[in-house]
Amino acid sequence: MTTLSPEILDALEKQAIELPSWAFGNSGTRFKVFATPGTPRDPFEKIADAAQVHKHTGLAPTVALHIPWDVVDDYAALRRHAEDLGVALGTVNSNTFQDDDYKFGALTHEDDRIRRKAIDHHLACIDIMDQTGSRDLKIWLAEGSNYPGQNDMRARQDRLHDSLSTIYARLGENQRLVLEYKFFEPSFYHTDVPDWGTSYVQVAALGEKAKVCLDTGHHAPGTNIEFIVMQLLRLGKLGSFDFNSRFYADDDLIVGAADPFQLFRILVEVVRGGGLNNPDVAFMLDQCHNIEKKIPGQIRSVLNVQEMTARALLLDREALAQAQTANDVLAANAIFMDAFQVDVRPALAEWRVSRGLPADPMAEYAASGYQEQIEADRVGGVQAGWGA
Ligand code: PSV
Ligand code: MN
Ligand code: MN
User: Key word Secreted present in the record (predicted)?
Assistant: First the structure.
């Protein structure tokens, strides 16, 4: 069995992955949303389910909120509820993609009234962050156009800068703004923040408290995502990850499911660039469990990130550096692949037990009775979902 050094175990001990509240609600495709028994009916129940993931893995101490999906009357109560269950509230995500007013844009809109409404939504999100104790405001914009000539793309960039500046000015001393990019969808011709370069340009113009969010599902097929990770870390502008995996587009599947090797390559660059356990770089998941059970789906996800982090930490960097310096192509590649091929699961199971955690969190959750309990308790009532 592979053994993990005290340094590696120490790094793993510090690893923290933030869960998305919406992973616990129902979601689906534009064809069908399948209702799942036991789905939370409100944000309090979503937090309770997220706490189960942390309880069984020790890996997920915070939960991200999405506003208005997670609007509650009393955020102090939601915060206390989370803390009572051993977790904390994390990133607040804004949402300007489900309101008729935003059909032709929000922060980029030509109409000052609509642009002001979108800015005010973000200021309201920061008010919530003050109450939840959240550090990060995450902005993803569903803005763009469908046809060449439809819009003045340049003017939209200028308005975006203007809107983001107003939002940035409202951030507290210890708060940050992270701007997420995505190359297409829902717009199909141009998107206002399509790539890391545009996100970088926009946040660099704001200041130190603005960073880029990299969602692993938001690139054209074949993109070398680890190169982007390297570059953003090098520039000190990688603020957060939204981890998920994809076969075709923005599939939001379990991280590490579609392409485990890509996840490994990304984590190798994270470690190389000092991004692991670095408070400046938030590790978040952005996934939707359309057909599988949601809590075990999230448990599997955080375990996949942990396993791949352990493998990235096992990379013999000294030997790799020597092979690279000698331009020994095959040796360098072999050293890289050796780390990827290691099965760290038995060592991680043993280590988990030494920390009072279950050897097999998936099995332990299945045996805990929690799933049966929520399926019985939450019958009736309106289930929360992606967009509700
Ligand atoms: C957009 O595709 C996105 O990745 C953003 O992070 C949204 O907030 C999230 O998905 C909603 O599921
Ligand atoms: Mn995302
Ligand atoms: Mn997405």
Answer: no
